[in-house]
Amino acid sequence: MISQIFILSSKGDHLIYKDCILTAGLQICYALFCLCLHLLILLQSHKGLHFIHARQDGLYWVASTKTNPSPFTIIEFLNRLAALTKDYCGSLSEKSVRMNFALIYELLDEMVDFGYIQTTSTDILKNFIQTEAVSSKPFSLFDLSNVGLFGAETQQSKVAPSVAASRPIMSSRGEQGGKNEIFVDVIARLSVVIGSKGVLMKADIQGEIRIKCFLPTCSGELSVSFCSSGYSSAVRVDECRFHQAVKLDEFDTFRILKVCPSQGEQTVMQYQLCDELPCAPPFQLFPSVEKDYVNRSVNLSMVLIFLKLRCDLPPKSTALNVSITVPVPKGSTSMSQELSSPDQTAELQPKNKALLWEIPRFPGGAQLSALFKVDVPGLSSASLLEVGPVSMSFELPKQTCTGLQIRFLRLSPTQTGLSQRWVRYVTHSDSYTIRI
């Protein structure tokens, strides 16, 4: 008999929760996540309940039971539930589960009755399921069959504002010299969760294209043409929204957006990419955490934290203002460090209960390391669990993590005196988390 059924995100957030026999609370969901996922075990018991989980496409499909059934039966049921969800929703992702929660609850009601599995047959279930699935199929900027999805009236914007990406682009000659110029900014904000074994667990890219105009008169029309970085492969985008002034009449054939730029800055396009990255994550971390005694007689001990950080950008690229924050045990009093280069800095922040490691410039393909010795009086083995997860912030100039490129900028009719048109690509870290 099944007591509870959960569908959890990669972070442990509950997406679907069904209490089949109405005897347990929702807080068991979070206890399960700590036990089964952080300890990396498939079967576990907690407060009289046995937990069984399976992982499919980055989601955790979980069942609890008070009886002692065959665990392989429950695992087979969870795998079948994941397969049915994919059949009905079209894809398995956190987004598709959230969009089709009513359909999934209806499936569970038909599949399980008071904890007992009734059926997992698609032929039987299709006679009872009435809820229509909401499609979350991604589309391509260069797929002609999906161009109709680009209408500004049908797309929803979920791009959050970012202070880090709102810095104005200035000419090298300053504000006074920046006349008769047009600047185009392709900005991406990257959110990533990487597991303790280096596996990408969650990825999200929110981007926008901004135009900043310094023309004395803006009576003309600016044409912006898009392409992928390789001019062949398509750029995948899950959601997209255009400014109301953008014209799409030439997008079907030439992939051109037309806009009448006004003085100042305006966002002409916002887009979002979920669940996966077109390229490898820019950073990989190889951590090691150990306990060491300074004086056993007075129980004076320390935590040894060794971090090896690798930048997987191309060799000619550079990451700027890289900051690594590592939570440390609550009782930490002082810290010493050994850094691999003199331009790096590190400090212990007792108020934040974390150590901060800062790297001004990080070349692509390079690898840096650091050893931190954190003094923690009365350190216990359980205190080591307080170390991590690691969070990073950085800026990647001249990089676009989606592969989106500007092919050309054209102003028509041609205006005399227009001297320069600038394009800048930049990627900011919105949330970059690495579990230890």
UniProtKB/TrEMBL annotation:
<dbReference type="GO" id="GO:0005905">
    <property type="term" value="C:clathrin-coated pit"/>
</dbReference>
<dbReference type="InterPro" id="IPR028565">
    <property type="entry name" value="MHD"/>
</dbReference>
<comment type="similarity">
    <text>Belongs to the adaptor complexes medium subunit family.</text>
</comment>
<protein>
    <submittedName>
        <fullName>AP-4 complex subunit mu-1-like</fullName>
    </submittedName>
</protein>
<dbReference type="InterPro" id="IPR036168">
    <property type="entry name" value="AP2_Mu_C_sf"/>
</dbReference>
<dbReference type="InterPro" id="IPR011012">
    <property type="entry name" value="Longin-like_dom_sf"/>
</dbReference>
<keyword id="KW-0812">Transmembrane</keyword>
<dbReference type="InterPro" id="IPR001392">
    <property type="entry name" value="Clathrin_mu"/>
</dbReference>
<dbReference type="InterPro" id="IPR050431">
    <property type="entry name" value="Adaptor_comp_med_subunit"/>
</dbReference>
<dbReference type="GO" id="GO:0030131">
    <property type="term" value="C:clathrin adaptor complex"/>
</dbReference>
<feature type="transmembrane region" description="Helical">
    <location>
        <begin position="21"/>
        <end position="43"/>
    </location>
</feature>
<dbReference type="Pfam" id="PF00928">
    <property type="entry name" value="Adap_comp_sub"/>
</dbReference>
<dbReference type="GO" id="GO:0016192">
    <property type="term" value="P:vesicle-mediated transport"/>
</dbReference>
<keyword id="KW-0653">Protein transport</keyword>
<dbReference type="GO" id="GO:0006886">
    <property type="term" value="P:intracellular protein transport"/>
</dbReference>
<keyword id="KW-1133">Transmembrane helix</keyword>
<keyword id="KW-0813">Transport</keyword>
<keyword id="KW-0168">Coated pit</keyword>
<dbReference type="InterPro" id="IPR022775">
    <property type="entry name" value="AP_mu_sigma_su"/>
</dbReference>
<keyword id="KW-0472">Membrane</keyword>
<dbReference type="Pfam" id="PF01217">
    <property type="entry name" value="Clat_adaptor_s"/>
</dbReference>
<feature type="domain" description="MHD">
    <location>
        <begin position="179"/>
        <end position="435"/>
    </location>
</feature>
